[in-house]
Design brief:
This protein is α+β, with helices and mostly antiparallel strands. The protein contains 6 helices and 10 strands; from the N terminus they run αββββββααβαααβββ.
Length: 279
């Protein structure tokens, strides 16, 4: 058994899945050039922004009423309208972000499955199906229940994906070694050539679509930031900074910068199945 082939097999099994997973689109909270440093909860009691790095550490608003660090703050009639607009926009954004997270997760597991088949010869692996169910449950238990946590998404999402990829490395390494020992290393090379090309084509086709769907949320996110900037209320003499602008992002072609509105649409009704934010 050539030592070179064994080493190559182990290298493939431990490196390709994480590397390929990194090529899939990621879930970022600042993709529209606007970010928040708060954990965000949308529930039947309104919008909650918690664990801010600077005061106010907790901001809550519902039906035009504003609370800063547990204290109700008087606001003007105009600001009450703006707070309702912010709440309506948050209720629209959270389910859209959940759907996008599931799409990103689905594409990531499509990559996992392709790499697994490439190295082991087994398609639609039971192990990968189990990991995907876990990932979907993880998304539904957080974003799906109205909770965006800084430690969970962004870099945390990437780390979660990398950990899942690495958890497959052991079984892939064993399969590669067995194929090398039994003289089937050539089959790995043939599958790798075919699947690598298929994965490239799939990523080239789906990647831009997911990027476009993420960008389609930008007009709403930018409108939320504009509404925040218009608030007259002050905290310790300074404007509230719930959202912060990072880089200027182009609104997708054909999509005007939209304003927020308050309506009784289904996406804007309070939901009572949220989780309590915890650290």
């Amino acid at each position: 058994m050539p030592l070179r082939l064994t080493a190559l097999g182990l290298l493939l099994a431990t490196a390709i899945a994480p590397a390929r997973a990194a090529e899939a689109p990621t879930l970022r909270s600042d993709a529209c050039g606007i970010r928040t440093d708060y954990d965000v909860l949308v529930d039947s009691g309104g919008i909650w922004l918690r664990h801010g790095p600077q005061a106010p550490h907790e901001v809550a608003f519902h039906d035009g009423v504003l609370s800063l660090d547990g204290t109700i703050v008087p606001v003007s009639d105009a600001d009450a309208v703006r707070l309702r607009q912010l709440e309506a926009g948050g209720r629209q954004l959270m389910p859209a972000a959940t759907a996008l997270a599931h799409e990103v997760s689905g594409m990531t597991f499509e990559v996992f499955n392709g790499v697994y088949e490439m190295l082991t010869g087994t398609a639609n692996s039971r192990k990968i199906r189990k990991l995907r169910r876990q990932a979907d449950a993880w998304i539904d238990g957080s974003l799906g229940r109205g909770y965006w946590e800084q430690d969970t998404f962004g870099e945390g999402f990437d780390q979660h994906v990398e950990a899942m990829a690495e958890s497959l490395a052991g079984s892939m390494a064993r399969s590669v070694m067995w194929q090398v020992v039994t003289g089937r290393a050539g089959a790995i090379e043939k599958r790798a050539e075919r699947k690598d090309k298929e994965l490239d084509q799939r990523l080239e086709a789906l990647g831009p679509q997911l990027e476009a769907r993420a960008r389609a949320l930008c007009p709403l996110v930018q409108a939320l930031a504009d509404t925040q900037d218009a608030l007259e209320v002050r905290y310790q003499g300074q404007p509230l900074q719930l959202l912060q602008r990072t880089d200027a992002v182009q609104v997708p072609a054909g999509q005007p910068r939209q304003g927020l509105h308050v309506s009784a649409g289904p996406d804007e009704h309070p939901r009572g199945n949220s989780v309590a934010p915890v650290r």
